[in-house]
Amino acid sequence: MTDTKNTLAIGLMSGTSLDGVDACLVEISECCDVKIKETYSLDYGKDIQTKLFEMANNIGSIKDVCIMNFILGEIYANCTLELIKKAGIKTKDVEYIASHGQTIFHHPKSTDCSGIQANSTLQIGDISVISDKTGITTIGDFRTKDMSAGGQGAPLVPFADEIIFKRNKTRAIQNIGGIGNVTLLSPDVETFAFDTGAGNMMIDYCTKKFFHKPFDKDGELAFCGHVDDNWLSYLLDEPYYRQTPPKTTGRELFSSEYIEEKLKRAPDNPYDIIATVTALSAHSIFDAYKNFIFPHAIPEEIVLGGGGAYNKFLTTYLQKLFKDIPIKTHEDFGIPNKYKEAMAFAILGYFTMKKLPNNIPSCTGAKRPVIMGKVSYQ
Ligand SMILES: Nc1ncnc2c1ncn2[C@@H]1O[C@H](COP(=O)(O)OP(=O)(O)O)[C@@H](O)[C@H]1O
Ligand SMILES: [Mg+2]
Questions:
Q1: CB of 204 closer than 6 A to ligand 1?
Q2: Is the pLDDT of residue 246 over 90?
């Protein structure tokens, strides 16, 4: 089934949308060709999602963090075992699992405590639990090593983007998860990447609040509304969008309070609200390219990934803004949009296991290349 020199590995991704965990079984060859063999997702469900949402919004106790660290470990292990079953393989065939974990706090700016300064980030979903329950060596906690080397601990996916897409063409790889992030790959320019702003986060929040649905499926609600230009300009007046990269963001900025504050000046029609926050996502991406990418290189194409790539209102809006630059999706390259980041973590883990550096300092701002990832061995 697998060439003996090839490695079967599983990547697990649970992003800022807090929707659940995506798992991807890949086969990696020695020269780093990566093939997706099978995929599987497990939704967190309402109770766990609510708990995580509270923790990410600074409500919740240390006890909650402690318990959820182990509960998520169980969920990630279950997801892995289902994936293995679906793929018709045995756990012993899988060399390692690489798990991103669930970010509950990400603070790339230095904080002072008693004269000691530190950046910090915390991903939970304990790797010992995953490893023990699956019987497979598990890697996790990637971001801390880059951060301790002076980086922002993000973005990490560009390392995988270089491997998947190479640098034979000037391309922008745009992920639209809870947060939007872009990687610029080019034969002429060093790879760089940054977070463009809220991807689906504000859309999801408003869809839950006004329509009691977890997200705006295919952009159907947005298509029923009109973009309110005044509110859009107000939303775009956010200092993060103007900040020069390297930069990363998360729920720490785009929190419930932040969105509630912005909603005080929103139009009355809830459909217009969804249309406008979706337009915001598109404009924040376009403005980021205009200000920080186009001065270095004009991409020949843009490749969308993440759940937001399924939002047709968003993708149509983006194509209007980018005019002649073709917008593709990962699916045009044989990679399911939803599983791209899980695939990326499987690739990062390959390098952890080989004890080779897997961060890109020009993307994260780290002082040096480092080997990210801690390992729980079997
Ligand atoms: N069919 C769809 N139509 C519109 N949006 C979608 C669709 N499927 C997923 N999404 C959006 O994608 C999000 C999940 O994307 P994902 O890439 O998993 O993000 P993250 O990595 O932040 O968890 C959902 O919360 C939702 O906003
Ligand atoms: Mg997700």
A1: yes
A2: no
Q: Is the CB of 142 under 6 A from ligand 1?
A: no
Query: Which ligand lies nearest the alpha carbon of 179?
Result: 1
Ligand 1 proximity of 175 Cβ (cutoff 6 Å): no
158, 193 in Cβ contact below 8 A? yes
pTM of the predicted protein model: 0.94
Report the chain's terminal Cα–Cα distance, integer Å.
Answer: 23
Q: In this predicted structure, which of 54-63, 95-104, 252-261, 321-330 has the lowest mean pLDDT?
A: 54-63
- C-beta of residue 346 within 8 angstroms of C-beta of residue 98: yes
The ligand placed nearest to the CA atom of residue 21 is: 2
Tokens 């491997």 sit on residue: 163
Domains of the chain: 7-153+337-376 (3.30.420.40), 159-333 (3.30.420.40)
Ligand 1 proximity of 151 Cβ (cutoff 6 Å): no
